[in-house]
Amino acid sequence: MKGLDTNVLVRYIAQDDPVQAAQATQYIEMHCTADSPCIIGQIVLCELAWVLESNYNQSRDDIVSVIEHLLQVGQLELMEPEIVWRALNDYKNSNVDFPDHLLARINEASGCTETMTFDKKVSKQPGFQLLR
């Protein structure tokens, strides 16, 4: 079993650096299979969403589409995909960043009734509570 770092996944998706994109593509296509999928961790998803938005000016819809595609590709395995699906649905229907929603869903799955935050915008989302 192999894991993918954010920078490899970004190069594979963006195809913006000819050398690294070719290396990432070759690796993923040769080593990530349905029988032995490569793992994508939750930290990688958070970093991916941030990089796509910040560095590549991708819209919320574009980021949703990328993550949905990753969830559906048999050669890749996202950690706790059911949690990622829930967080992605929350993200689609809000103005809060994907990592915040993923954090709330991870905490919820761990038994947390709420996630405390100082972020007023985030605190309006289900699963969060503003710390005063």
Structural class: mainly alpha
Q: Which quaternary structure do these chains form?
A: single chain
- The general outline is globular
Beta strands, count: 5
CATH topology (level 3) name: Rossmann fold
Contiguous low-pLDDT stretches (5 residues minimum) are none
Separation of the first and last Cα atoms:
44 Å
Please give the CATH class.
Answer: Alpha Beta
Binned strand content: 5-15%
Radius of gyration: 16 Å
Walk me through the structure.
The protein is mainly α. It has one domain (2-130): Rossmann fold. 58% of the residues lie in helices and 11% in strands. The chain contains seven helices and five strands, in the order βααβααβααβαβ. The chain has helices at 6-14, 18-31, 42-54, 60-72, 81-92, 98-109, 120-123, and strands at residues 2-3, 38-40, 76-78, 115-117, 128-130. The strands form two sheets. A three-stranded parallel beta sheet has the order 1-2-3. β4 (115-117), α7 and β5 (128-130) form a beta-alpha-beta unit. α1 packs across α2, α4 (60-72) packs antiparallel against α5 (81-92) and α5 crosses α6 (98-109). The radius of gyration is 16 Å and the shape is globular. The termini are far apart.
